[in-house]
């Protein structure tokens, strides 16, 4: 916990100047609040009692003094509101950036388990509650303490007995406030979780909006959404109930105290132990004394909320990425492209069965290897182990003779290009998406890559050519077009090892031919691993590896495997018939 507090405070560091200025203003705000009733007391007691010679002049002087005080109060208030909040926002930005960078480091295994909507909530809502605490927290404490102590001193100086009466109310009031505040907190936390659930639901539905429409399942989605949405209202309702008790109760207490002071103070006046000026000042100061309670209770809420958010933030930040560079990771400038599997076994999770068992495989630089086998035997898994998307359970994978876990992730992944079946394109233009393969590529390089990927022609047919917007995730393009953009991206990246994971399976014959052609251009002088469903696309491979549940079943060229008349020949004959 100690290190967490240190971490919590560390976010103030870049803004210490602002922070101190903020505290100074908080101090001034409290001081002025306390001095003003004293001025009023002075005016009513000393100037207005008719004994002063230059009463008029004095009155104007005091008026001017109070004007100055009010001006200071206003300026400090504005500073706290404006700069204090800005400081909070900047701290929020810093934390958010740190979390975002961390998100990018977390492994695929983490993302297999998480809901994107929940992760989004953490980075937006949670950091906001923290910034509120960062900025209002210290300010609330300073203002509350000063006002409470200051008002107490003034009250006790005016009338001890009357002060005692006021203080009889305070413990009851404090207990009452904290009780309802606590209930408010619990409800608030619940409603936060509910917001996360709503986000997750919206994210899920909108991502799959095309599926929803095709099944005309909008009512189903609406029902799911309504369920989450109603749970949100329920949690808010509980919160508002406690809040109502809290606020109305606090006002009632203040009124009760005022009545008590008027009655008992009035009695004092009748006995001439108190004058009107004192009673007036006393009543003005009650407000100043009680305000800190409300402020502290508010602070307790901010604190609860902020600390919960901070805990959630730290929990996320403390998740060690299960795949990261080893301490003395090697930088691999440009690999030749020898890939070797040494008795590699892999399972996704301790509780799962092995997907791959004792796989040994030696792929030479520049070789063109195809993987075939039934769906679910682990072809995609096998290929995703080479860029270390998942950590192998046993054995070793070597790139140019070096264990991939000793190579820096950055340089390892820079040497591998992947084209997947479900291409992911980012919102933006065609050109932006191709440039993703090499961020500093020139327009000419982008165009050249597009030409090699057989994408140039269709791009030129678009209304804005390379500057055409492709829509969210590339919805404005066809499957084959998206696929060719993703190939252009890899052309630009120009890695020595490439992996095609069923890149053509979902395409029609025409697009398949275009993609196939560009693939073949890309394979020149590179180590190529192709996973293909359609055996027609693997015929040209130098080696075909047939995977089954028990591992590598057979390998060889198309002709050799046909001659062998085993699994591959069977698969091939089956597809020919279709
Ligand atoms: P293929 O590409 O040969 O069709 P995969 O490599 O995708 O097969 O899957 C192999 C096995 O691993 C399947 O049983 C699948 O259910 C499982 N699997 C795939 N991805 C994951 C994952 N992210 N988490 C857990 N299990 C997975
Ligand atoms: Mg697959």
UniProtKB/TrEMBL annotation:
ABC transmembrane type-1 domain segment(s): 23-305
Taxonomic classification: Bacteria, Bacillati, Bacillota, Bacilli, Bacillales
Highest taxon, organism lineage: Bacteria
Transmembrane segments: 20-44, 59-80, 141-158, 164-181, 244-270, 276-293
InterPro entries, per database record: AAA+_ATPase, ABC1_TM_dom, ABC1_TM_sf, ABC_transporter-like_ATP-bd, ABC_transporter-like_CS, P-loop_NTPase, Type_1_exporter
UniProt keyword ATP-binding present: yes
Subcellular location: Cell membrane
Protein's UniProt name: ABC transporter ATP-binding protein/permease
Single annotated GO MF: ATP binding
Membrane topology type: Multi-pass membrane protein
Organism whose genome encodes this protein: Paenibacillus sepulcri
Main location: membrane
Keyword field: ATP-binding, Membrane, Nucleotide-binding, Transmembrane, Transmembrane helix
Pfam families on file: ABC_membrane (PF00664), ABC_tran (PF00005)
Signal sequence residues: none
Domain ABC transporter: 339-574
């Amino acid at each position: 916990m100690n290190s967490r507090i240190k971490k919590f405070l560390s976010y103030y560091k870049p803004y210490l100047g602002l922070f101190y200025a903020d505290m100074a203003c908080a101090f001034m705000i409290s001081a002025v609040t306390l001095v003003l009733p004293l001025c009023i007391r002075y005016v009513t007691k000393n100037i207005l009692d008719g004994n002063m010679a230059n009463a008029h002049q004095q009155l104007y002087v005091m008026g001017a003094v109070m004007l100055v005080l009010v001006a200071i109060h206003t300026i400090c208030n504005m500073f706290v509101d404006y700069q204090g909040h800005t400081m909070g926002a900047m701290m929020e930005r810093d934390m958010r950036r740190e979390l975002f960078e961390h998100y990018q480091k977390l492994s695929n295994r983490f993302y297999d388990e998480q809901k994107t909507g929940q992760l989004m909530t953490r980075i937006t809502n949670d950091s906001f509650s923290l910034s509120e605490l960062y900025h209002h927290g210290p300010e609330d404490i300073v203002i509350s303490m000063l006002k409470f102590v200051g008002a107490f001193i003034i009250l006790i100086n005016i009338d001890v007995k009357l002060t005692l009466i006021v203080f009889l109310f305070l413990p009851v009031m404090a207990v009452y406030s904290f009780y309802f505040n606590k209930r408010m907190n619990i409800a608030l936390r619940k409603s936060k979780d509910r917001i996360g659930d709503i986000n997750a639901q919206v994210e899920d539905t909108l991502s799959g909006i095309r599926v929803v429409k095709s099944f005309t399942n909008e009512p189903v989605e609406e029902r799911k959404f309504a369920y989450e949405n109603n749970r949100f209202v329920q949690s808010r309702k509980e919160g508002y109930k406690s809040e109502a008790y809290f606020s109305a109760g606090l006002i009632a207490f203040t009124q009760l105290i005022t009545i008590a002071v008027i009655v008992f103070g009035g009695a004092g006046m009748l006995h001439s132990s108190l004058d009107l000026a004192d009673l007036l000042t006393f009543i003005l100061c009650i407000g100043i004394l009680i305000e800190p309670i409300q402020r502290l209770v508010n602070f307790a809420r901010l604190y609860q909320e902020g600390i919960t958010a901070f805990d959630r933030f730290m929990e996320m930040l403390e998740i060690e990425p299960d795949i990261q560079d080893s301490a003395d990771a090697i930088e691999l400038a440009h690999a030749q492209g020898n890939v070797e599997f040494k008795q590699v076994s892999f399972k996704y999770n301790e509780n799962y069965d092995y997907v791959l068992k004792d796989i040994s495989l030696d792929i030479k630089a520049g070789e063109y290897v195809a993987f075939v086998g039934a769906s679910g035997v682990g072809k995609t898994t096998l290929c995703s182990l080479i860029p270390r998307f998942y950590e192998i359970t046993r054995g070793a994978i070597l790139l140019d003779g070096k264990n991939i876990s000793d190579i820096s992730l950055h340089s390892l992944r820079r040497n591998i290009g992947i084209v997947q079946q479900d291409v992911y394109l980012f919102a933006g233009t065609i050109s932006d998406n191709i440039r993703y393969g090499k961020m500093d590529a020139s327009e000419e390089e982008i165009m050249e890559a597009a030409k090699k990927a057989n994408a140039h022609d269709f791009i030129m047919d678009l209304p804005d050519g390379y500057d055409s917007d492709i829509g969210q995730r590339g919805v404005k393009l066809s499957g084959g077009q998206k696929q060719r953009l993703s190939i252009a991206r890899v052309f630009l990246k120009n890695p020595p090892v490439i992996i095609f994971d069923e890149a053509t399976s979902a395409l029609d014959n025409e697009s398949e031919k275009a993609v196939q052609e560009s693939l073949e251009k890309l394979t020149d002088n590179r180590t190529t691993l192709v996973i293909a469903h359609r055996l027609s696309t693997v015929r040209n491979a130098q080696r075909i590896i047939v995977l089954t549940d028990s591992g590598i079943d057979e390998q060889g060229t198309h002709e050799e495997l046909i001659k062998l008349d085993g699994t591959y020949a069977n698969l091939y004959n089956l597809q020919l018939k279709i």
